[in-house]
Amino acid sequence: MDTKIIVALDYPDQVEALKLVQQLDPSLCRLKVGKQLFTAAGPRFVEELVKRGFPVFLDLKFHDIPTTVGLACAAAANLGVWMMNVHALGGGAMLRAARAALGDAADRPKLIAVTLLTSMSEVDMREIGLQDTPRAAVLRLAKLTKLNGLDGVVCSAQEASMLKQELGKDFNLVTPGIRPATAEVGDQHRVMTPAAALAAGSDYLVIGRPITHAPDPLAALLAIHQDIL
Ligand SMILES: O=C(O)c1cc(=O)[nH]c(=O)n1[C@@H]1O[C@H](COP(=O)(O)O)[C@@H](O)[C@H]1O
Protein backbone atom coordinates (compact mmCIF):
# COMPACT_ATOMS: atom_id res chain seq x y z
CA MET A 1 0.00 0.00 0.00
CA ASP A 2 1.24 3.45 -0.87
CA THR A 3 0.58 5.09 2.50
CA LYS A 4 -0.16 8.80 2.78
CA ILE A 5 0.61 8.97 6.50
CA ILE A 6 3.97 10.32 7.59
CA VAL A 7 4.63 9.77 11.31
CA ALA A 8 6.74 12.55 12.81
CA LEU A 9 9.34 10.79 14.98
CA ASP A 10 9.68 13.74 17.35
CA TYR A 11 11.56 11.85 20.08
CA PRO A 12 14.54 12.87 22.22
CA ASP A 13 16.79 10.03 21.05
CA GLN A 14 16.96 6.91 18.92
CA VAL A 15 16.14 4.55 21.79
CA GLU A 16 12.76 6.24 22.23
CA ALA A 17 12.19 6.47 18.47
CA LEU A 18 12.98 2.77 17.97
CA LYS A 19 10.35 1.74 20.53
CA LEU A 20 7.74 2.95 18.04
CA VAL A 21 9.59 2.09 14.82
CA GLN A 22 9.91 -1.55 15.91
CA GLN A 23 6.10 -1.81 15.93
CA LEU A 24 5.75 -0.32 12.44
CA ASP A 25 6.35 -1.42 8.90
CA PRO A 26 6.55 0.57 5.67
CA SER A 27 3.03 -0.43 4.59
CA LEU A 28 1.64 1.44 7.62
CA CYS A 29 3.46 4.75 7.38
CA ARG A 30 6.36 6.80 6.15
CA LEU A 31 8.68 8.34 8.78
CA LYS A 32 9.77 11.91 9.38
CA VAL A 33 13.00 12.76 11.16
CA GLY A 34 13.09 16.36 12.30
CA LYS A 35 15.46 18.70 14.08
CA GLN A 36 15.19 17.15 17.57
CA LEU A 37 15.87 13.52 16.62
CA PHE A 38 18.41 14.39 13.90
CA THR A 39 20.39 16.55 16.33
CA ALA A 40 20.37 13.80 18.95
CA ALA A 41 20.75 10.68 16.82
CA GLY A 42 22.48 11.94 13.67
CA PRO A 43 22.67 10.81 10.05
CA ARG A 44 23.50 7.16 10.81
CA PHE A 45 20.08 6.75 12.41
CA VAL A 46 18.44 8.16 9.29
CA GLU A 47 20.35 5.59 7.23
CA GLU A 48 19.17 2.85 9.61
CA LEU A 49 15.52 3.81 9.00
CA VAL A 50 16.13 3.83 5.23
CA LYS A 51 17.76 0.38 5.53
CA ARG A 52 14.62 -0.89 7.26
CA GLY A 53 12.69 0.02 4.11
CA PHE A 54 10.88 3.16 5.30
CA PRO A 55 10.53 6.15 2.98
CA VAL A 56 12.13 8.84 5.17
CA PHE A 57 11.26 12.53 5.08
CA LEU A 58 14.26 14.45 6.44
CA ASP A 59 12.65 17.57 7.85
CA LEU A 60 15.50 19.99 8.53
CA LYS A 61 13.82 22.98 6.86
CA PHE A 62 17.03 24.44 5.44
CA HIS A 63 17.03 28.25 5.26
CA ASP A 64 20.43 29.80 4.54
CA ILE A 65 22.44 31.30 1.69
CA PRO A 66 21.98 29.43 -1.62
CA THR A 67 25.43 27.76 -1.64
CA THR A 68 25.06 26.44 1.89
CA VAL A 69 21.56 25.12 1.26
CA GLY A 70 22.60 23.44 -1.99
CA LEU A 71 25.46 21.63 -0.26
CA ALA A 72 23.23 20.63 2.66
CA CYS A 73 20.63 19.20 0.25
CA ALA A 74 23.32 17.19 -1.55
CA ALA A 75 24.49 15.80 1.81
CA ALA A 76 20.91 14.88 2.74
CA ALA A 77 20.41 13.11 -0.61
CA ASN A 78 23.44 10.93 0.17
CA LEU A 79 21.52 9.48 3.14
CA GLY A 80 19.00 7.91 0.78
CA VAL A 81 15.99 9.86 2.04
CA TRP A 82 12.71 9.95 0.09
CA MET A 83 11.88 13.60 0.81
CA MET A 84 13.54 16.71 2.24
CA ASN A 85 12.53 20.33 2.74
CA VAL A 86 13.68 23.94 2.76
CA HIS A 87 11.92 27.19 3.70
CA ALA A 88 10.34 28.99 0.73
CA LEU A 89 11.03 32.24 2.62
CA GLY A 90 14.71 31.66 1.72
CA GLY A 91 13.81 33.05 -1.72
CA GLY A 92 14.08 32.03 -5.38
CA ALA A 93 17.89 31.79 -5.59
CA MET A 94 17.99 29.52 -2.56
CA LEU A 95 15.20 27.32 -3.94
CA ARG A 96 17.00 26.98 -7.28
CA ALA A 97 20.26 26.03 -5.55
CA ALA A 98 18.47 23.38 -3.50
CA ARG A 99 16.77 21.92 -6.56
CA ALA A 100 19.94 21.97 -8.68
CA ALA A 101 21.86 20.10 -5.98
CA LEU A 102 19.57 17.06 -6.32
CA GLY A 103 20.09 16.45 -10.04
CA ASP A 104 17.57 14.72 -12.29
CA ALA A 105 17.93 11.00 -11.63
CA ALA A 106 14.58 9.20 -11.45
CA ASP A 107 15.22 8.16 -7.84
CA ARG A 108 16.30 11.57 -6.53
CA PRO A 109 14.63 12.67 -3.27
CA LYS A 110 11.52 14.82 -3.52
CA LEU A 111 12.21 18.43 -2.58
CA ILE A 112 9.46 20.48 -1.00
CA ALA A 113 9.34 23.93 0.54
CA VAL A 114 7.65 25.06 3.74
CA THR A 115 5.32 27.95 2.94
CA LEU A 116 4.01 29.35 6.21
CA LEU A 117 4.43 27.20 9.32
CA THR A 118 1.15 25.65 10.47
CA SER A 119 1.81 27.07 13.93
CA MET A 120 1.56 30.63 12.60
CA SER A 121 -1.54 32.76 12.94
CA GLU A 122 -2.28 36.12 11.35
CA VAL A 123 -1.09 37.81 14.58
CA ASP A 124 2.27 36.00 14.31
CA MET A 125 2.54 37.13 10.67
CA ARG A 126 2.08 40.80 11.60
CA GLU A 127 4.84 40.47 14.18
CA ILE A 128 7.36 39.56 11.46
CA GLY A 129 6.10 42.12 8.96
CA LEU A 130 3.92 39.90 6.75
CA GLN A 131 0.84 41.97 5.97
CA ASP A 132 -1.27 39.50 3.99
CA THR A 133 -3.58 36.66 5.08
CA PRO A 134 -2.16 33.15 5.64
CA ARG A 135 -3.91 31.98 2.44
CA ALA A 136 -2.41 34.76 0.32
CA ALA A 137 1.08 34.25 1.77
CA VAL A 138 0.89 30.49 1.25
CA LEU A 139 -0.27 30.87 -2.36
CA ARG A 140 2.49 33.38 -3.12
CA LEU A 141 5.20 31.14 -1.63
CA ALA A 142 3.80 27.99 -3.27
CA LYS A 143 3.86 29.70 -6.69
CA LEU A 144 7.48 30.73 -6.09
CA THR A 145 8.27 27.13 -5.12
CA LYS A 146 6.69 25.68 -8.27
CA LEU A 147 8.30 28.29 -10.50
CA ASN A 148 11.70 27.16 -9.25
CA GLY A 149 11.12 23.50 -10.05
CA LEU A 150 10.45 21.96 -6.63
CA ASP A 151 8.06 19.03 -6.18
CA GLY A 152 5.62 20.59 -3.76
CA VAL A 153 5.07 22.41 -0.51
CA VAL A 154 4.42 21.94 3.17
CA CYS A 155 1.26 23.86 4.01
CA SER A 156 -1.76 23.54 6.26
CA ALA A 157 -4.62 21.39 5.00
CA GLN A 158 -6.76 24.52 5.21
CA GLU A 159 -4.90 25.77 2.12
CA ALA A 160 -4.83 22.43 0.27
CA SER A 161 -7.89 22.78 -1.96
CA MET A 162 -6.84 26.27 -3.07
CA LEU A 163 -3.32 25.04 -3.93
CA LYS A 164 -4.53 21.94 -5.81
CA GLN A 165 -6.75 24.17 -7.89
CA GLU A 166 -4.07 26.82 -8.54
CA LEU A 167 -0.99 24.61 -8.96
CA GLY A 168 -2.27 21.32 -10.34
CA LYS A 169 -2.57 17.76 -9.15
CA ASP A 170 1.09 16.80 -9.60
CA PHE A 171 2.35 19.46 -7.18
CA ASN A 172 2.69 17.59 -3.84
CA LEU A 173 0.91 18.98 -0.79
CA VAL A 174 2.36 17.78 2.51
CA THR A 175 0.18 18.85 5.42
CA PRO A 176 1.12 18.89 9.12
CA GLY A 177 -1.27 20.32 11.72
CA ILE A 178 -3.39 17.17 11.43
CA ARG A 179 -5.63 16.54 14.43
CA PRO A 180 -8.17 13.74 14.81
CA ALA A 181 -11.38 15.26 16.22
CA THR A 182 -10.54 14.23 19.80
CA ALA A 183 -6.84 15.26 19.81
CA GLU A 184 -5.35 18.33 21.48
CA VAL A 185 -4.37 21.14 19.13
CA GLY A 186 -1.26 22.17 21.13
CA ASP A 187 0.89 24.84 19.44
CA GLN A 188 -0.65 24.33 15.97
CA HIS A 189 -3.01 27.01 14.63
CA ARG A 190 -4.19 25.95 11.18
CA VAL A 191 -5.42 22.38 11.79
CA MET A 192 -7.71 19.80 10.15
CA THR A 193 -8.78 16.18 10.74
CA PRO A 194 -7.10 13.42 8.67
CA ALA A 195 -10.19 12.66 6.57
CA ALA A 196 -10.94 16.34 5.91
CA ALA A 197 -7.31 16.98 4.93
CA LEU A 198 -7.37 14.18 2.34
CA ALA A 199 -10.72 15.37 1.02
CA ALA A 200 -9.23 18.86 0.65
CA GLY A 201 -6.41 17.52 -1.54
CA SER A 202 -3.50 16.73 0.82
CA ASP A 203 -1.14 14.17 -0.71
CA TYR A 204 0.60 13.32 2.58
CA LEU A 205 -0.47 13.84 6.20
CA VAL A 206 2.29 14.59 8.72
CA ILE A 207 1.15 13.42 12.15
CA GLY A 208 3.22 13.66 15.33
CA ARG A 209 1.77 14.02 18.83
CA PRO A 210 -1.66 12.51 18.12
CA ILE A 211 0.34 9.28 17.57
CA THR A 212 3.57 9.67 19.54
CA HIS A 213 1.90 11.03 22.69
CA ALA A 214 -0.97 8.52 22.61
CA PRO A 215 -0.99 5.87 25.36
CA ASP A 216 -0.75 3.27 22.57
CA PRO A 217 0.85 4.92 19.49
CA LEU A 218 0.32 1.92 17.20
CA ALA A 219 -3.39 1.81 18.10
CA ALA A 220 -3.64 5.55 17.43
CA LEU A 221 -2.05 5.10 13.99
CA LEU A 222 -4.34 2.19 13.14
CA ALA A 223 -7.38 4.21 14.26
CA ILE A 224 -6.38 7.00 11.86
CA HIS A 225 -6.08 4.42 9.06
CA GLN A 226 -9.62 3.24 9.84
CA ASP A 227 -10.82 6.81 9.78
CA ILE A 228 -9.51 7.54 6.31
CA LEU A 229 -10.42 4.22 4.60
O1 LIG B 1 7.89 20.70 7.84
C1 LIG B 1 7.14 20.19 8.68
O2 LIG B 1 7.07 18.96 8.78
C2 LIG B 1 6.27 21.07 9.47
C3 LIG B 1 5.90 22.27 8.88
C4 LIG B 1 4.89 23.05 9.46
O3 LIG B 1 4.49 24.09 8.92
N1 LIG B 1 4.33 22.63 10.62
C5 LIG B 1 4.70 21.47 11.26
O4 LIG B 1 4.10 21.14 12.31
N2 LIG B 1 5.72 20.72 10.73
C6 LIG B 1 6.20 19.52 11.45
O5 LIG B 1 5.14 18.56 11.52
C7 LIG B 1 5.13 17.90 12.78
C8 LIG B 1 3.78 18.11 13.42
O6 LIG B 1 3.72 17.44 14.64
P1 LIG B 1 2.42 17.42 15.55
O7 LIG B 1 1.96 18.83 15.71
O8 LIG B 1 2.92 16.81 16.83
O9 LIG B 1 1.42 16.54 14.81
C9 LIG B 1 6.29 18.46 13.59
O10 LIG B 1 7.36 17.54 13.47
C10 LIG B 1 6.64 19.77 12.90
O11 LIG B 1 8.03 20.03 12.94
TrEMBL record:
Example GO biological process: 'de novo' pyrimidine nucleobase biosynthetic process
CDD domains xref list: OMP_decarboxylase_like
Record-linked NCBIfam families: PRK00230.1 (NF001273), pyrF (TIGR01740)
Keywords: Decarboxylase, Lyase, Pyrimidine biosynthesis
Function: Catalyzes the decarboxylation of orotidine 5'-monophosphate (OMP) to uridine 5'-monophosphate (UMP).
The organism's taxonomic lineage, starting at the top: Bacteria, Pseudomonadati, Pseudomonadota, Betaproteobacteria, Nitrosomonadales
Protein name, per record: Orotidine 5'-phosphate decarboxylase
Catalysis: reaction(s): orotidine 5'-phosphate + H(+) = UMP + CO2
Subunit details: Homodimer.
Family statement drawn from the similarity comment of this UniProt entry: Belongs to the OMP decarboxylase family. Type 1 subfamily.
Record organism: Sulfuriferula nivalis
Domain Orotidine 5'-phosphate decarboxylase: 4-224
The gene coding this protein: pyrF
SMART domains: OMPdecase
Active site: residue positions: 59, 61, 64
Keyword Lyase: yes
PROSITE patterns per UniProt: OMPDECASE
Broad enzyme group: lyase
GO molecular function: orotidine-5'-phosphate decarboxylase activity
CC terms in the record's Gene Ontology section: cytosol
